[in-house]
Amino acid sequence: MAKVKDQALETKGEVKGRVKGGAKVFGFVVGAAQLALAAYAGSDLVKRPESQINGPKALWAGALALNWVGPTAYLLVGRKESFDRVKGFVDGLQKRA
Fold first, then answer.
1. What is the distance between the alpha carbons of residues 77 and 61, in angstroms, rounded to a whole number?
2. Burial tier of 81 (Cβ tally within 10 Å: 0-12, 13-18, 19+)
3. Residue 10 belongs to what H/E stretch?
């Protein structure tokens, strides 16, 4: 019975487990953005001297493998200049509150 139902779905173009076109495009775009972010953060990490990084380079290199979290954390907190900007922003928000 299930085989007949699956065959009927295949003729309609609706096979279980398949991702439709729009979802495929969305997944591709999100994946490409994630890889681009990781590549940018990785190239910045390699080029930047260790004196301008908060923490050891090896730690940040490992963190870059953590999907969106690692590269974003490195770009916001791992670089000393970025960290100073973020810290200033947070301090400004705290003064307003």
1. 14
2. exposed
3. helix 2-12
pLDDT digit string (tens) for 20-70?
778 889 999 999 999 999 999 999 999 999 999 999 999 999 999 998 999
List of residues 6+ apart from 76 with CB closer than 8 A: 82, 83, 86
DSSP state of 53: B
Report which secondary-structure segment, H or E, holds 25.
Answer: helix 21-47
3-class DSSP state for residue 43?
Answer: helix
Backbone angles phi, psi at 13, to 5 degrees: 85, 20
Nearest-angstrom CA–CA distance, 86 and 95: 14
Residue 1 has pLDDT above 60, yes or no: no
Q: 3-class DSSP state for residue 79? A: strand
Single pTM value for the model = 0.68
